[in-house]
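Fresh eyes needed here. I'd like your take on this protein's tokenised backbone:
***
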Amino acid sequence: MLFSNKYGIILVNASLLMVMIFISQNSGTDYYSLIDVDASRLATGNDVRPNLLPPPVQLSPGRNKYVVAKFRDPVTKNTNEETKKLRWFVQSAELPYHKRVAFDLVKRICAVPGYEEVRVEITGGGRIDYDPASSTVSVYGFSHRYGKGDHARVAKLIEDSFGTDVTVTYDLSDKLY
């Protein structure tokens, strides 16, 4: 079930007794949190399944909008705030708005056991031209909602994910959208 109001979007999953709250802040940064209604389901060391997270880089072929997001692994009985791993994700998709790309990515992250309550920060966005036939990726532009993504970081994440299989370039100018 999906509800929307002036404060954001609330997604209720009745089968899991979960509530996803989308909070839009005046700073232009959106935070997504999934709140577990049943506190007894908080992550224990055995409940966290990072192996089920989506790949850190997901590119759709063609010219598409992208977002870059980050979050820290949840605190469990085996970790504390200082030892949580910082994770970065890049997703491009043929969707009309950066907000939709972000929402789809966050839904996939928060569906993973142990990550239901993780706070995902969308740090920016832009465009990615991905041509699998020529093995090229171009990162550029900006998002009206999230601002310009860190194109250098995004290019590095793509290179780390694809290895030498692709040639990645990026443009930091503000003229491209």
Residues 2-37+54-170 form a domain with the Pyruvoyl-Dependent Histidine Decarboxylase; Chain B fold (CATH 3.50.20.20). The chain has one domain: 2-37+54-170. The longest helix spans residues 98-110. The chain has two helices and ten strands.
